[in-house]
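User: Here's a chain of 705 residues. Predict its fold as tokens.
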Amino acid sequence: MTPTRPEFLHLSQVEKVIFYVLVFASLAFAAWQIVQRVKIWHQGKPLVENEKGWRYWVPSLAQLRGWFGRVHTYVIAQKKVKSSRKKSGAPMHLLIFYGFLSLFMATTLLAVATYSPLLGLPNFHKGTYYLYYELAFDVLGLMFVIGVIWAMVRRLRLSNQLGDAGLKSEDQVQAAKQAVDNRRRPISGASSDILVLGLLLMIGLTGYVLEAARIGNTPTPSDQWSVIGNLISPVFNGISASGYKFMWWFHMVWVLIFFAVIPRLRIRHIIMAIASASGAPERAMGHLVPISMEEVEKTGQIGASTAADFSRWHLMSLDACMECGRCTEVCPAWNVGKVLNPKQVVQDIRGAMADGSNIAAAISEEALWQCTTCNACAEACPVLIRHVDLIVDTRRNLVAEGKLSGPTAVMLRQTGSTGNAWGTPRTSREDWMKGLEIPLCRDGQPFDFLFWVGCAGATDPGAIKTTKAVAELLTKAGVNFACLGQEEACTGDPARRVGDEFTFQEKAMENLSAFEKYGVKKVVTACPHCFNSLKNEYENPTGDPNTGRKMDVYHHTQLLQNLIQGGKLKPASGAGTVFHDPCYLGRVNDEADAPRALLGEKTNYNGRSPDGLGSLIRPSHLVEPEFYASKTRCCGAGGGRLWMEEPNDQRPGNKRAKELLATGAKTVALGCPFCRIMLDASIKQETDEEIKLVDLAEMLQEANR
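Assistant: Prediction complete.
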């Protein structure tokens, strides 16, 4: 007898019809709910952006490859979940996800086999295939049940705690309470999570019970391949046909309920994540979408006031949120007791999607200004939500409405009037060159690299040391470079991240004019913020691709690494040193190996999450802090925060300083002038011990004298 099992065992034709009616009704109800959400997403702006500025409704082959690639990487392979620092939560999630995926595959294969005769094809659900099918999905289904039970136990342990991320201040407690009171989001919270998990557990367990009942009612020699069902089948030995049918309907009722309510539950992210990942913007993490003057003239506003001002993809991604709290776990503001909670930002905007309320009011202006735009939240998000896009676009509206004051507003005025975020005059751009033979573009001599100094590099005393060290190293290595000097203006990065989009565009166009004038093709800079803007945003700074310029842009550690590899420089020693990865280098631009190469290390962090998965090459002498490379922790300077006042006990730099000092290293190596400013103050507040704070270029300079 060929191993197989009958479908719809003991069910009459009428019962089959009732089953199909109920299935299609539940699916139709689920589809109707999704359509209602789609209507809400549709209030946003059309998805027209990609890495070149536009996305057409008819996708190209490259776009299709990108979509499928992202689904494979972030949904099927679960890259973000596997690299999570939440070691207790990631395995649990993976058990549930892959277990659920296996059950979906099992149901799909069974449906295909059942209905294939309608297309003139044979029912393949028999023989050896059937045996392996039963064995494989019986075991994989057990993974799902174990994962759900694990999640229920974990949730019950957390149910008495207010908030998933842990509350550390009265402000956070009140904010969490307010979020609960607002009731703006679909069913969520500890109690509803238990209900959802209970529903999933009921589906998983009743599936095994139904299988055991079938074996008890109609045993076959191949039942041993259904290992779980066969194990518990003695309980149902001799069960009647009516008893079996009762168990069948009992199981199916829970499945139908699940179909009907899934759009209202957090688990909807299983479906939404596919759409979110496939349609995610193809631009770099550090590239903010520009606003064109034509758009302002058309809409009469700048930035996002309501949810309708975001793109449809952004709104859709909010519904993909799984509320795991990974974004909040890594947020530098939240971790020092501030009210900014990236997870709550998503929830607040999602709530505002339905009622059209003001985004800034829903989130709170205080929380919006606390963001450092470090992108730790976006890097950690399993469904690729771009929190920084949402926050900066809302900031743009606040700035346009005149709701920014204090030192940051002064910084914007200084950037606009002097071309320097510190407000120093143009002539001071060349002060650091005094006594040095630094070639200038205006001298008319050909050059290979433009050495971009930046506002900090020409103004801050510590950063000037780095600037001089880079210039000396480039000269020693025989690199043909030149500087713009007084013709250099701020890249506009601080202004753009604060929300002043058009000051950024003004400075970008001014600098691009100089680049065009001197035929700049390659740029090197010691500032990761300048590096990011020049590399990712200057190709299309205004929304019109014709106004930008494509260049080869290097962080100084990348170019110096090439010079070391070419034998033109020798590396420094990293013994007793800890390197602090700048957010806009290690995470936003995924460069962690080049800085370490300057200290003689050969790591392979780039493109990999430093979470211990796989075989990573780690430093031999350089010590690593708890968080490094793409998981680095923010110093607190980005997003214009360098110019904002904050209490000493709420400084992200202080927390980062503790992590660096915990390594026992006596030298803290840096690759960013902003980090140097923040950590210099923070380290002095955290310890009286003599700690050397130095840029990698200075260490390399010393090694090559």
